[in-house]
Design a protein that fits this description.
Elements (H helix, E strand, L loop, with lengths): L2 E7 L6 E7 L27 H4 L5 E3 L4 E5 L2 E7 L7 E9 L14 E12 L2 E6 L4 E2 L6 H7 L5 E10 L5 E5 L1 H5 L10 H6 L2 E4 L5 E7 L3 E12 L10 E12 L18 E6 L8 E6 L9 H5 L10 E5 L5 H12 L1 H6 L7 E4 L18 E6 L6 E2 L2 E3 L6 E9 L2 H13 L13 H19 L20 H7 L30 H11 L12 H11 L27 H22 L1 H4 L3 H22 L5 E3 L11 E3 L2 H16 L8 H7 L4 H16 L2 H13 L6 H12 L1 H5 L5 H19 L18 H19 L6 H18 L3
Parallel strand pairs: 2-13, 9-16, 18-19, 18-20, 20-23
Antiparallel strand pairs: 1-2, 3-4, 4-5, 5-11, 6-7, 6-15, 7-8, 8-10, 10-11, 12-14, 13-14, 14-15, 16-17, 21-23, 22-23, 24-25
């Protein structure tokens, strides 16, 4: 049995609250005889006898290294068999303040991953970072140069404190390493330190919380407090406190045979420069990150029979998981069994309840031997699927899926907003348990997909025709995307009256295809290169079928690979989506505040409804200057990048004028607004509209249009876009009607956007389309358009208009004059 001992330890150097485990033996721990370490003469060294360092008062935790707590000092007893052995040092946030990193960093987020070796140099033990990005065969002469030109940095140097009595282990004091601000494992990188004006680590408020040793890993929890004059929260305290988790993981003695990456199939990867290549340069090789699955019966596997793997992928539920959710989580994990059958494996992935103490007294979520779905009591609305992989081969060693308690609230809200018009069971704050369970199952399945190596595939929903989403038989069979890895959460296209509709996502044919690509065992291959021809044949067989297309999440220009959209026509899909959203907006009070007798849910859901509106609008914006990316090899017909047609782009602009830039009065509902806020109505609408207008009038988009028109004059041009936008935004100036406050705000946002185009430059940190703005057509086109607007407003002032409109036009003329002639 493992005991957890809590000790309160005080020192003028270190204030330490520590939790240490005392263990006589651990399942899976083995000690192998190894060559004895040469112990220097005591008269020539500070090295002491073992009993004088590790005293009878030591509290010992056995594992990969024995960890000893003696007074207020922590010691590692490192077996010499583990010197010069590849290990991973992984740093993660365990706890962190709100809004750290702008809110994009969560508990569990990795901050550093390094491959390390423990090495002896004279009377010291060094932690040296080992490069995995530059490699060469040990047998080749160039390996000497690779090592010389990729010299590994020393992260820390420790004095040897003692040797074990049998001289098979070396003892070092690691207290200073884990209680100091060591930049290589710190959670605060240089950018955060600069942003928050971090001065130093306050040692009086920093300590080692615990160190636990397991058979294949050591886990350290550090509580660090920094003095910072501009912290992300509680600015009056000038303090940042974080809790870091440092994992040291033993890597497999023999790396797994890697599998080569092909960008036509989405996968998480790692890359290396191989100097063993016969090419006239170093050969960059990119490998898949995947679990090691080998059939128990290779002959049966090769005959086409389903065979269990030697070591299946096993996920345990966190003991903290509520009982009512456990069955859904386990089902979500094991949904992937069907996909693995496509790769020839049965029971390849298994979900288990947390074992009892009687079943497994050594079970701990921190033990690298166990992959766990962590249930986190947090208000964060998210779930993540991080994993740890061997940088030498891509082998995934362990994964902890993180489920935050409040995540289902987001899904409940979106279920109501996106499907409530056509789905009666979504018109409530108390979503039926069965449907909540189905959502949870699919969220877990999505995160498991990440831990298996699959990134988001944003083209998967484009495989299905928009009208198919209104077909009950189709949606029940195919769901709403060709993969669970798309951000396609709900069927927002189905209309009231459509029957037998599936509204929630599910796994699809692309998942089977990708798992087969990554995990099918190729018996005859003895190297990654031996597999290349077979892998290419699998891809070529499916080429041209949109169901098996991979679309990068990183694309900001491809209308066929968008996040949160569904269907193969964004304009049509968003039209259906807005029709439904208008119904939901009208009924929102009766579904929320009328039932609860308070306005909290109404306020929350109205805010999220505006976000849904913004997503539908954004999907159409992407068509303007859009480029369809279809990754292919030179042996395949066609080009990779194809500009969106002029017809489609002009249709998108016309749709946006009607649905985004004409004031959406249905969103301005007094029965909602006057019950959730006392002011800010006009500016909120201005912000919603101007965001999309600024997105259209961007350097990147205009630069793409200039390029496309230069290649083919039939393509939509930047001038045509600017003209079409100007005609719609300033339509009142020609018609002679008065301009509402919402439209006046939007027209001023237009002038601000044009001012930016005239005076600013591309942001090199954000832009992916680089061109010299000053020497491009952009300034000339903008100047010309502003002169046109100025003439329109001058003529419009001659008409019979109300005072607000006249003053607005006069102000517009002055603004344009100042833009064109700042002096």
């Amino acid at each position: 049995m493992r005991k957890i001992l809590s000790l309160a330890l005080c020192s003028f150097v270190l204030m330490s609250c520590s939790t240490v485990q005392s263990t006589s033996s651990k399942k899976g721990t083995s000690k192998t005889a190894h060559a004895k370490t040469d112990s220097p003469k005591k008269s020539q060294s500070k090295i002491k006898d073992y009993d004088k360092v590790i005293t009878k008062d030591a509290i010992t935790d056995e594992g990969l290294f024995n960890v000893h707590l003696v007074g207020d000092k922590y010691y590692f007893e490192i077996p010499t068999e583990h010197l010069n052995t590849d290990m991973l040092l992984v740093s993660r946030f365990a706890k962190l303040p709100a809004n750290l990193g702008g809110g994009y960093v969560n508990a569990g987020s990795k901050t550093n991953t390094r491959m390390i070796n423990w090495e002896r140099f004279k009377d010291k033990i060094l932690i040296k970072e080992k490069s995995s990005s530059a490699v060469a065969s040990d047998s080749l002469p160039i390996n000497v140069s690779v090592k010389s030109n990729n010299y590994e940095p020393i992260l820390y140097a420790f004095d040897i404190a003692a040797f074990s009595k049998d001289s098979l282990s070396v003892v070092i004091d690691v207290t200073s390493f884990y209680s100091s601000d060591v930049k290589s494992i710190s959670g605060l990188g240089s950018r955060l330190r600069s942003s928050y004006k971090v001065k130093n680590l306050d040692k009086s408020r920093s300590f080692i919380n615990s160190i636990k040793s397991f058979p294949e890993n050591i886990e350290v929890i550090q509580d660090f407090t920094y003095n910072a004059s501009n912290p992300p929260v509680n600015t009056g305290d000038e303090t940042i406190s974080i809790q870091m988790n440092q994992s040291m993981i033993l890597l497999p003695k023999t790396p797994m045979q890697p599998r080569l990456f092909d960008e036509r199939v989405g996968w998480f990867t790692l890359s290396q420069y191989d100097y063993s290549s016969e090419e006239l340069k170093s050969d960059q090789k990119t490998y898949l990150r995947r679990w090691k699955l080998i059939p128990k019966d290779i002959e049966a596997y090769n005959r086409g029979e389903l065979v269990e793997p030697v070591k299946p992928i096993v996920y345990y539920l966190d003991p903290a998981t509520p009982m009512k959710f456990r069955s859904y989580m386990k089902e979500g994990i094991e949904l992937w069994q069907k996909a693995f059958e496509a790769a020839g494996f049965k029971n390849a992935i298994i979900a288990k309840d947390p074992p009892t103490k009687a079943e497994d007294p050594d079970f701990s979520p921190e033990d690298i031997r166990y992959s766990v779905v962590r249930y986190v009591a947090s208000t964060t609305r998210n779930a993540t699927g991080p994993s740890v992989s061997d940088p030498r081969s891509g082998e995934i060693i362990e994964s902890d899926i993180i489920w935050y308690h409040n995540h289902l609230r987001s899904y409940r809200n979106r279920y109501m907003l996106e499907t409530g018009a056509a789905n009666p069971s979504a018109r409530t704050l108390n979503t039926p348990d069965e449907e909540i369970g189905e959502m949870m199952k699919m969220v877990i399945a999505h995160e498991v997909g990440h831990t298996l190596g699959l990134p988001h595939n944003m083209s998967a929903s484009y495989a299905y025709d928009v009208e198919s989403y209104r077909d009950g038989e189709f949606t029940q069979k195919n769901g709403i995307a060709a993969t669970i890895m798309d951000y396609a959460r709900y069927n927002y296209i189905a209309q009231p009256g459509d029957e037998n509709i599936r509204f929630i996502r599910q796994l699809g044919p692309y998942d089977n295809y990708a798992i087969n690509y990554g995990y099918r065992y190729i018996d005859e291959a003895t190297s990654a290169e031996d597999e290349k021809e077979t892998l290419n044949a699998w891809i070529t067989e499916k080429a041209g079928d949109p169901i098996y297309k991979f679309g990068k999440q990183s694309s900001r220009f491809d209308p066929t690979a968008q996040t949160e959209d569904i269907g193969n026509n964004s304009i049509k899909a968003s039209t259906y989506g807005l029709k439904n959203l208008k119904i939901v907006a009208k009924n929102l009070p009766s579904w929320t505040s009328d039932k609860t007798d308070n306005y909290e849910d109404l306020e929350e859901l109205y805010g999220e409804l505006l976000s849904v509106w913004g997503r539908y609008i954004g999907h159409v914006v992407t068509h303007i200057g859009g480029v369809v990316e279809d990754t292919k090899n030179p042996s395949q017909e066609g080009v990779i990048y194809t500009p969106e047609s002029k017809t489609e782009q002009k249709a998108a602009v016309a749709w946006l004028h009607k649905n985004a830039f004409e004031t959406p009065s249905w969103l301005i509902d007094k029965s909602i607004l006057q019950n959730i806020n006392y002011a800010g109505y006009t500016d909120r609408m201005r912000g919603l509209q101007s965001r999309h207008l600024n997105n259209i009038l961007s350097f990147e988009r205009l630069g793409r249009l200039i390029d496309h028109n230069a290649l083919d004059a039939k393509n939509y041009s930047a001038l045509e876009l600017l003209s079409d936008i100007r005609t719609g935004i300033w339509s009142e100036s020609k018609s002679g009607i008065n301009v509402s406050v919402f439209r006046r705000n939007l027209q001023r946002a237009y002038l601000d956007a044009m001012f930016n185009l005239m005076t600013e430059d591309l942001n090199p940190n954000r832009s992916r389309q680089y061109f010299n703005v000053n020497q491009s057509d952009v300034r000339a086109l903008v100047r010309g358009e502003l002169n046109v607007v100025k003439r329109l407003l001058t003529l419009a002032l001659k008409r019979n208009l109300n005072s607000e409109t006249k003053y607005h036009y006069q102000d517009g003329i002055e603004r344009i004059s100042n833009i064109l002639d700042p002096k």
